[in-house]
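Appendix B. One record, verbatim.
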Amino acid sequence: MPSKLLLRVTASVTGSLALAVCLTACGGESASSTSSAGSKGGEKTVTVYSADGLKSDKGDGWYDKVFADFTKKTGIEVKYVEGGSGEMVQRAVRERTNTQADVLVTLPPFIQQADGKGLLQAYQPQGSDKVNGGDKAADGKWTSVVNNYFGFVHNKKELTEAPKTWEELLDAKYKGKLQYSTPGVAGDGTAVLIKAMHDFGGKEPAMEYLKKLQANNVGPSSSTSKLAPKTDKGELLVANGDVQMNFAQAKSMPNLGIWFPAKDGGRPTTFALPYAAGLMAKAPHTENGRKLLDYLLSEEAQKQVSEVGGGFPARTDVKPTDANAVELTKIMGGVEVFEPDWADIDKNPTGYVDAWKSATGS
């Protein structure tokens, strides 16, 4: 099998959010609940395992809003656990004989891995017919609930202009001031490999570049969300992230800027990394899980994706015009969006991560 990934350009995002098709997430390491009420065995409980980025420490994130509204409408309390995209799948695998979660939300290729491990059952939520075919499983095992794109952040105070190319990041001024989350653990960390392989034209040249970049890299991080605060404070000049999460963080982190690296001589690129949700195969509260998935894809919740969460609706018929939506369109302007070969990545995740480990000595 050739090492070069599929590089099919799907769009140049320059107009409205109708062109926005998918999102990134990242790794976190916290656990919380929207309420102390209810027990695992209670009929009025639903447990969500999710990659982080949609819930805010300040309680003003998209999850905070929609979970509270869902509980108010249904009386069902949401118990919430978050972590790295791969970490959440691994946890669900460990609990296979005693499933704790009802709903799993994670990023590609981890949602495909979860399906491949038999963790998900088919369920097509209400509103999923309005989600693009590429943003949901054909057999109904998962569907995107929030769309987003992979990206990088920089400290605007120290770097008034964002870097433009991957090659610039090899400069000595970035030594100890650059960090990206761990591939294979964090969704956005795995995204670094995917974008590098696209931009450099294959696995080998990408690994050659990342080997050089390692001289400036601070080291591994299981949580992408923790890199933005470090960048805002100036501890880092550059880090990886995703548009939705970083856009939301920038509201309280004034030095945070979003940018997209290009190969020297090329255009800035990105790809879609949706928050994809599926119903657990042995969910202890299956019906409550279905109700929550229905609500996450409801028009009401989808209209709040940009306004509250700083992300992109998964439903194509929801076209927000709020201030955040306008600003997000500007951020994505002129950025070339490519479609990774997810089937290849799903078949060879270990091979790509092992190649990165070998190249970087990680």
